[in-house]
Design a protein that fits this description.
Layout: E1 6-12, E2 18-24, H1 28-33, H2 38-46, E3 50-57, H3 62-78, E4 82-83, E5 96-98, E6 104-106, H4 110-113, H5 117-139
Parallel strand pairs: 2-4
Antiparallel strand pairs: 1-2, 1-3, 5-6
Amino acid sequence: MDYRLGKIYKIYTARSPHIYIGSTTQPLPHCLYNMRKDNVRQLLALGGTRIELIQRVACDSKDELNCTLVAVRADYIARGLTVISKLPDATTQLTPIICDCGKTTSKSHIGRHIKSAHHIAYLQTVANTIQYAVVLIYRNTNITPPANLITSVD
């Protein structure tokens, strides 16, 4: 899936105070047509159901999209609206974690994140920076570096 096409949307009807808030990478009409959740089917059965884009979320992973979804749902709930979508365990599994590499992930997906190309590239940059600093320290002191230390920096 291309998570750069992420969207947060709501499904609602004037015949009910309840709304459903979800996420997708698909076009919204396709999402509504293929909805399988029972609580949304109940809204659809009332008639006059509408689907509306809340925000576009260009992200790199399902984790980032889910973290944004949890935040949007929490915002709607804080405004006193009745969100019928079942919230995942937002306090543990989908609480956004901002990694030192700059990406957002969640506790349940941190293992996948640390294996991502972006995170590995970040770690390599940190390692190169540390190596450069060590080389400079040895160059500016009269201490002989260990034999296994790379003493030239490109």
